[in-house]
Amino acid sequence: MPGRRPPRPADGGSGGRAGGPARGGRTARAEQPVRGGRPARPGQAGRTGTPRHEDRGRRPADRPRRPAASTVELTYLPGLRDVVAAEVAALLPAAHGLRDVPGRTDAVELHLPGPLAPVATLRTPVAAWVVVHLDVPRPKTFASPEHLQRIVDAAYASLRVAGSSSFRFEAAGSDSAVFARLADLLHEATGLRHAPDDGDLVVRVRRGVHRTGSGRTGATDPGWDVLVRVGPRPLSARTWRVVDYPGAANATIAAAMSRLGGIVPTDRVVNLMCGSGTLLVERLLAGPASAGIGVDTSPTARDAARQNLDAAGLRRAPTPALLAADATDPAALAAALAGPLDGHGADLLLADPPWGTRHGSHAASPALHAGLLRAAHAVAAPGARLVVLTHEVRVMERVVADATALWGAREPVRVFAKGHHPRLWVLDRR
After folding, report:
1. Which of 350, 348, 388 is CA-nearest to residue 369?
2. Which helix (H) or strand (E) holds 407?
3. Rounded to 5°, angle at Cα 316 from 314 and 320
4. Helix, strand, or coil (residue 204)
5. CA 32 to mean position of chain CA atoms
6. For FRET with 116, which of 22, 132, 275, 379 sits at 20 to 30 Å CA-CA?
């Protein structure tokens, strides 16, 4: 197997496919500590920068060059495909060619000119990957200079977005001699440490698939895909969540709720039953609002929400407010919000009522959901939108049908998340 180290990164990867197996592998030889993707010299602990190979008597590598374009795969929670596509259109206007990944219900791919940094602004996908397709029959040939160079290019494209200190493989056979050799070569080329169990930079290897319009026939070998995750953590990992409150909403679902409700800078936003503030944080991070208010009866929940809001660094005005009020009591809710809303109604209301697992009970759900719709209507401005996340599907269907004089319902969105199949309801005030 060729062992020659490739030149420094040139242009980015291409192609995209489906699949994605398990991790493993052999730890590479011991190396100096790495900070921010660059091997740290003595006395330079904590220094960050673009990774480089240590000087071991070899010719210095060429300076890495930014890719002209990359193929990017975005994974998402099943059911949120259209929301993800809409966010891509809004935040990545240069992206083109968005299409479903064959054989998958949780991934799309697109082509992105220039650097990958804008990908990190997306909030509705779970993760982003730089995709390199290799028309080879076996992973053993990844070590050839021309193929290895493309994998290294993809790694550098990711590292420019956010530094990593180590890498790991997610692949069938990742503990084989073939992947051990590939790990050694990637370590040589990037200076990153191979950490099979907890490496920051994830390199996924999977079998390619045949695609319509690809020019390939059914008998042609589909090759292999190598995917390098953008950043050391998934996009779904939220650094603002400093308090992990029981029953908190999934952050990517919360971001999708904001998108479905609309990001309008003049909106007065109210998060009913706010818990630890996930829905409110995600809406305020998505764009400006003229007001941001969380409402909950629990002091513990409001304290958690305050800590998460502070950690989110929401420095733009106005300062989010947290109120004690019953979101199922129209009169009490209206009285609590009268001052903070300055006599106006709420334009966007977001709610994640208890599902009866961590909080509340199934028996109480009909009254709770019906009360929520009545109270939200009492404080809603003309034309307001109410977005509700609930696992009580049948209950919500009944209370929405009973509240047609108050709210008009759009088609609910079904989401698949950790064994749950909740619905996202968008209601328009009548």
Report:
1. 388
2. strand 407-409
3. 60
4. strand
5. 32
6. 22
pTM of the model: 0.83
The per-residue pLDDT for 67 is 61
Q: Which residue reads 């599902």 in tokens?
A: 355
SS (H, E, C) 104-118: CCCEEEEEEECCCHH
Mean pLDDT score, 36-60: 37
Report residue 90: phi and psi, to 5°: -80, -40
Contacts of 291 (CB under 8 A, 6+ apart): 267, 268, 269, 270, 318, 321, 340, 341
- CB proximity list for 95: less than 8 A, separation 6 or greater: 72, 88, 110, 111, 112
Torsion-angle region of residue 414: left (phi > 0), alpha (psi -120 to 50) or beta?
Answer: beta
Contact between 31 and 186 (Cβ < 8 Å): no
d(CA 251, CA 268): 21
Q: For the segment 98-110, what is each residue's pLDDT rounded down to a tens digit?
A: 999 998 999 999 9
> Which residue do the tokens 């975005």 mark?
74
Q: Using an 8 Å Cβ cutoff, are 265 and 287 in contact?
A: yes
Determine contact, residues 181/143, Cβ cutoff 8 Å: yes
Q: What is the 3-state secondary structure (H, E, C) of 278-291?
A: HHHHHHHHHCCCCE
Q: In the structure, what pLDDT confidence band is assigned to residue 42 with cuts at 50, 70 and 90?
A: very low
Tokens standing for residue 297: 């009866």
Name the one residue in this structure whose structure tokens are 């947290």. 322
Among the listed residues 78, 72, 77, the one whose alpha carbon sits nearest the alpha carbon of residue 92 = 72
* Mean pLDDT along residues 357-380: 86
pLDDT band at residue 247 under the 50/70/90 scheme: confident
Strand 38-39, strand 107-113: pairing: unpaired
